[in-house]
Amino acid sequence: MTFREIKSEDIPFVESFLKDLFGPGFLFEISTSDIYKTYILEKDGVIVGVIQFWSLFEEAEITLLAIKKEFQNKGYGKILLEKSIQFLQKNNVRFVYLEVAVDNKQAIKLYEKLGFEPITVRKGYYSDGKDAIVMKKNIRSSQLEIKGRKLELLISQEQINQKVLEIADLINKEFEGEELYVVGILKGSFMFFADLVRNLKGKVYIDFMQVSSYKTGMESLGEVIFIKDMSIDIKDKNVLIVDDIIDTGRTLKALVEALSLRHPKKLKTAVLLDKKERREVDYDADYAGFIIPDKFVVGYGLDWAEEGRNLKEIYAVI
């Protein structure tokens, strides 16, 4: 999923789907002002949505948010709004405003879920005479912290859910009609492990191991310590190792080498996050979700000295 500023070559396509949504008389304007921005959301090179907003000092207003018809009701509006808020947070905006038609219950529910609150009603705001609810969100007050360090949203819950489904689909295809033993690496993988297993088909058995290569701080030791072994014999069995993240690659490579000595039928690895910049050994997971920058991350099972595991999204510590 790509969130980027609109280019001149995007305009005809965006104009076309906006007129399809709002009627042939809809006027789509691109401002060249530094305070007024137009961004698009792309999936596999296809534009799925557009958003426009202005920002001045500590305030911003979203003036247009539209998702192409065939991509509606699939979570893309939420992703587009979340990415816009991330952009505005980085630009020191405190308050974000938007208007929504009073009868657009679905949009109102989404905005409320994302922390927007109604503050007033504008009578006859729209060209058809409909009233608009003005909603406001303080995007600084919602910024999380751990140990005095701010957290910046890196991957939303919706993006995680979609990626888990994609990985599960690939695994289901490879092991179709076969038994699969899924082994979660404690503690960081527990959320990813649970969500992934829920979407696996056929006969699935689970177990856990605990392997450590981290201090209680933010830096990796580069050493592998096996704390808890699995309880099953994996000889001649299909085994999938599920971990939260691969960075140097040392831990996962060492684990795979150790388990290979137990002669499984097939041994595969799945990770949600991949810090390729940190790789120190020639090893990649068989299934990888998101390639992320070299930042310390927390949430969705990942922690900083046991804090942050319960967060639904994945955040970078800044």
Explained architecture:
The chain is α/β, with parallel strands linked by helices. It has 2 domains: 2-141, 3-Layer(aba) Sandwich (Aminopeptidase), CATH 3.40.630; 157-317, Rossmann fold (3-Layer(aba) Sandwich). The protein has 6 helices and 17 strands. A 7-stranded mixed sheet has the order 1-2-3-4-5-7-6, sandwiched between helices. It has a 6-stranded mixed sheet with strand order 12-11-10-13-14-15, with helices on both faces. Helix 4 (157-174) crosses helix 5. The chain is elongated. The chain starts with a strand and ends with a strand. The mean pLDDT is 91.
Q: List the total number of helices.
A: 6
CATH architecture of the largest domain: 3-Layer(aba) Sandwich
Q: pLDDT average, as an integer?
A: 91
CATH topology of the largest domain: Rossmann fold
The stretches of 5 or more residues where confidence is low (pLDDT under 50) are none
* Proportion of residues in helical segments: 10-25%
As for the number of domains, it is 2
Q: What is the count of β-strands?
A: 17
Biggest sheet, spatial arrangement of strands: 1-2-3-4-5-7-6
- Report how far apart the termini are: 22 Å
Beta strand %? 35-45%
**SS-based structural class?**
alpha/beta
Whole-angstrom Rg: 23 Å
| Helix and strand sequence | EHEEEHEHEEEEHEHEEEHEEEE
User: What general form does the structure show?
Assistant: elongated
